Structure formats: structure tokens, C-alpha cells
Amino acid sequence: MNRIEAIYSLIDDKDKVVDVGCDQAKLSLLLAKRNQPSIASDISENVINKAKNDIKNDLIDLRVSNGLSNIKEGEADTLVLAGMGTHTILEIINNTKLRFKKIITISNNYHDILREKMNAFNYIVDKELIVKENNKYYNLIVFKEGKTKYSRKEILLGLNHIEKELYNEYLNHLLKKYNKIKLSSEDNNPKIDEMIRMLGDVI
Ligand SMILES: C[S@@+](CC[C@H](N)C(=O)[O-])C[C@H]1O[C@@H](n2cnc3c(N)ncnc32)[C@H](O)[C@@H]1O
Predict the structure, then answer these.
(1) Residue from 69, 84, 88, 139 to probe ligand 1 pocket by mutation (most atoms less than 8 Å from CB)
(2) What is the pTM of this model?
(3) Exposed, middle or buried, 196 (CB in 10 Å: 0-12/13-18/19+)?
(4) pLDDT tens digits, residue range 87-131?
(5) DSSP letter assigned to residue 36
């Protein structure tokens, strides 16, 4: 299962989806195949013009939009933010008054900060899934509305993984990665040490 298929598998056919940062609108194309309408938006006018040229499908509403600025109340209840960094994702959430029953993210970095700050916006982790595409791991996180108190382990390593085998493989990959960073760096980095300790405890 690739990243887009993984996101697709977590969307119900009644969900009203907006895919922000849609690029080629691959997710919307999959949804349209099962007759599900969706909004596919991107900050780039070029991206949307190209998609409008390539895709002729009435079920796909292509829009230029910086984050959720061109999405109106009631148009969507499920938000997809994939292929961007945690800071962009948080900025998009911070800049909107819209609320969502489900937010599916695949951030490129800082998943600990994402879990922590989303909690501050009253969104908690519902479930997580590790996806492997072209030998690279992606940490998909589904958020739902709520507020919680996470343990440090949950903040750093995630929680509620729906597929354990790939998650364990991912943890081993992380341990190797952080050990390599530690070996190649002359300075002491407390966060790297904490990750190595935490990973050592769970593997
Ligand atoms: C790497 S692509 C990811 C495409 C697709 N979502 C995926 O996961 O394969 C990131 C896309 O996000 C768009 N983007 C970046 N910042 C954005 C923002 N603030 N609002 C909307 N789109 C944004 C970029 O123009 C780009 O098309």
C-alpha cells in the first residue's frame, strides 16, 4: 500500500473530504473512482491549472487555496494534509476557524511536535499507521477531536498503531538512524539520547 492508498483506506465513503496540498489530486482521483466527491486544493495556481487540464471529473472540485482560506464552513468534515512539514500543517490548523471530525496527516518531520501541538488545538491521535513507499517510511497520523495527556513515550513514538509489523520495523530503523547520528556527532544532543533510550526500552 502506498501513501495515497493508505490515506484512502482511512476515509469512509460518507466523509466530506478536502485534500489541502493536493498536487496532482491523486487522492481525489481514487475517491472519484468510488463515486465520492472531494475538494482538492493547493496553494500553487500552476499546480491547480495543470490538474484542471489533466483531470476532467465533476466529482473533483479543484481550488487554489492557501491552507483552508478558500474552504467554507460545512463543505468538509475530513481534512487531509500530506507531504508537507509539521510547521506548515500546524500553521494551516492555526489559521482556520473550521473544525474537522477527522484530520489525516503525513508530515515529513517532527511528529512529536505535531502530536503535542495538535493536542493544544484540541485534536488527539485516533490511530497511526507506518507506510513504506520506495524504501522510505512515512508516519501517517489520524487525529480526532479531543484533549488528552500523553506520556513522553506516546509523544515521541506515537500510539494506537493499527499495523504492528511495519511499526516494529520502523522503530528498528529509527534506532539505527539515531545511533548513527550519535556516532557521527561530537556534541551531546539530549533529544537523540532520549530517543535511543526510549527505543531501546520498547524494542
Ligand atoms: C510534496 S506535495 C504533496 C502532495 C500530496 N499531498 C502527497 O502527499 O503526495 C506538497 C504540496 O503542498 C502544497 N502546499 C504547500 N504549502 C501549502 C499551503 N499552505 N496550502 C496549500 N497547499 C500547500 C504545495 O504546493 C505542494 O503541491
Answers:
(1) 84
(2) 0.97
(3) middle
(4) 999 999 999 999 999 999 999 999 999 999 999 999 999 999 999
(5) -
Q: Which residue has the cell 481514487?
A: 30
Q: What is the pLDDT of residues 35-66, one digit of tens each?
A: 999 999 999 999 999 999 999 999 999 999 99
79 lines ligand 1 (CB under 6 A): no
Question: How many whole angstroms from 4 Cα to the centroid of ligand 1?
Answer: 13
Distance from Cα 82 to the centre of ligand 1, integer Å: 7
| Beta carbons of 36 and 13 less than 8 angstroms apart | yes
How many angstroms is it from 51 CA to the middle of ligand 1?
Answer: 13
